[in-house]
Fold:
Amino acid sequence: MREIPSESITKAVAELAVRANCVLPEDVRDGFKKALRIEPSPVGRDVLGQILQNADIARLESMPICQDTGLAVVFADIGQDVRIAGGDFEEAVHEGIRRGYTDGWLRKSVVAEPLFERKNTGDNTPAVIHARIVPGDRLRLRLAPKGAGSENKGLLRMLVPADGLEGVKKTVLDAVIAAGPNSCPPMIVGVGIGGNMEVACLCAKRACARDVLSKNPDPRYAALEEELLALVNKTGIGPAGLGGETTALKVNVEWRPTHIASLPVAVNINCHAARHAEAIL
Amino acid sequence: MSAQKHVTAPFDDATARSLRAGDSVLLSGTIIAARDAAHKELVETLRRGEKLPIDLRGAVVYYVGPAPAKPGQPIGSAGPTTSGRMDAYTPALIEQGIKGMIGKGYRKPEVVEAMKKHGVPYLAAVGGVGALIARSIKKYEVLAYEELGPEALAAMKVENFPAIVVIDADGNDYYEQGQTPYRKI
Structure:
């Protein structure tokens, strides 16, 4: 067993919170630079220029890229040969979020209860934690802060097998068109296919937090990612929804085995501030 | 893009009506920051028949919940939030005299009807570029509902705040006009 002190987890999460929110990942930044060269709309190019300029200011001044520093979504892959010492794992993550969001001057955007009081917790906790046990003696933490402008435009459809590929394409297109300028395009579109209701949604979330340079390892799904991207970029929505061909930077697809009677499809949209940062302990 | 228009907030009727869909605008003056919770408070105050904490006549309302200011700075990142969430409250505030709105995203038809009736334009700032936008915000002062934190009602002094008119006071829609030439499905 390899021992990891809970305080190390807290420190790592606090650092990730600031880095993820203030430094636009290189893969996303490169994507916008490329888009700037090919976007035909002058207004669209102006928006892409603003996005790149904003990323520079945020990085240099350690300011959040977007004021909506989101719900802090933490993916944790915990090696089965790891022993967490000195405290509770989830509390260690929450404490890291608390420290990172407070010390990093990040906005606190969480209400403690959704319907009646909606009182701000004041420290952006709790984080949303997706933990899984994996082989090995390492702990991988990936933080993907997610704002509500894009999150509110997520879509789940419980399709049936006869809906097939066309049903999947229509679901993705419907989600993107409904999102339009609200989700701060150019978007990164995460698509989860298969599993059951909650697995499809989690696949979509993992997909939209994936690097934009990555491809699905299955060539059929990698080709589908390309095809969906081309389709989405024909909507005309463009940067900031003001018109153009760069509506999405990338469509990422994740899939899982499913029931003989099911074809769940979930779409989770990420805004152009597609923030993610990773640490391995 | 058309040449940038310089305008000053609050707006009078003539200024509000002079802004046309597609116009690129640099806004200076004082605007009012309010988003979901402040809108709810304002409209509930009106429903109770009570007086609003501020006079909204001529106000340009910016849908924003800023990140906290670091010491020595007026404000943290402060880009627009999604306007559609304010739609349920907007016609009531237009009745109170607001003369402009800044946010991002589509509006409901009933909001556009109220805008046309009262001569109010809707402007968009680019979402997700809050660090860049913060450079045009020189002062942030909470006016009411301080307990709402980032959702408090506040006055913002702005200089050359960049925005684009997306729906003008005649209901012309630049999202539609801008997207149509590039729509291929």
